[in-house]
Amino acid sequence: MNTLLASGGDKSKHTAPKAAGKVKAEPVDSRLYPAIVKLLDTVIQSLTQMRTLSIVDDNPDLASAVDARLAVTNGRRCVYLAHCYSAVNKYAEALALLQHATIHVRETISTLSLSEADLINNGTPSFFPLTNDDIKELENTVASDSLHYKRDWFAYNGGTVKGDPTSHKKPLFFNIALNYVELDMDRLQERAGKKPAPAPSKARVEPAQEKKQVPKAKVEEPIEIASTPPSQQQQPARGGLSSLLGGWWSKSS
After folding, report:
1. Strands (DSSP E) along the chain, which ranges?
2. How many Å is the maximal CA-CA distance in the chain?
3. 163: closest CA among 98, 97, 94, 92?
4. Contact 5/65 with Cβ under 8 angstroms?
């Protein structure tokens, strides 16, 4: 696995975790991580078969040593699998895998504390050495990768799961300080010399208003003229004091 990482070359921004092979953190090709995950799957399969042996099951210290190596291998597998997801900008899945890796690291520490001595480290030859420094180094790698993925995720699309990286979003601190100010991204791009292409205008066609036709019956109807002479039309009645005085003067005359 160390030889595979060393032959990767400087082809990716991702770095190999130090806890996996005690090598310097140098850029490697991200296409090598699936191959490392496949190798770790084989190691996990071998340790699982070893755990089912009767000689291991009958010895509690040996069983704890195998369980600790099984847990730490699962943690390393999660770290490399997180690199595979981060290479395609799937940061939510990568961070979830790192959380699983943290659980496996805690399980390793808890399992080693159950036995007084590690029989695999004390054996000759030691085919799978595991020390406290290796566990601590893996724990630091998980913490540093988690922070790195969070920064990359925020720079990619603001930390949203279903967000579109091409859509413009108001910055966090700008949104807190001036949340009532709209972000005119088109104006900012125009001032930066990146004027967006004008959107095609859509002319709105209004439907022609129908002319209301006057019914012919109303046009052809003759206009009736009042036959009553104006002198015989009812005069408006007078009211008040003038009507009383008018009646009195007419009687006196």
Report:
1. none
2. 156
3. 92
4. no
Cβ(79)–Cβ(20) under 8 Å?
Answer: yes
How far is the C-alpha of 219 from the C-alpha of 41, rounded, in Å?
A: 96
Handedness of CA 18, 22, 28, 34 (dihedral sign): negative
Please give the Cα distance from 4 to 27 (Å, whole number): 13
**Listed residue (4, 44, 50) closest to 28, CA to CA:** 4
- How far separated are the first and last CA of the chain, in Å rounded? 140
Task: Check residue 230 and report its DSSP letter.
Answer: G
How many other CB atoms sit within 10 Å of the CB of residue 43? Answer: 17
Residue-wise pLDDT tens digits, 157-202: 877 777 665 565 555 555 555 555 666 767 777 877 776 566 555 5
Q: Which residues, listed in sequence order, are joined to residue 15 by a DSSP beta bridge?
A: 27
* Mean pLDDT, all residues of the chain: 75
Distance CA 245, CA 239 (A): 11
Q: What is the DSSP letter of 137?
A: H
Structure tokens that stand for 151 in this block = 């920064």
Q: What share of the chain is helix, strand, coil (3-state, %, to 5)?
A: 60, 0, 40
Give the whole-angstrom CA distance, residue 222 versus residue 237.
33
Q: Tell me the mean pLDDT in the region 56-71.
A: 92
Report the alpha-carbon angle 55-60-62, nearest 5.
60
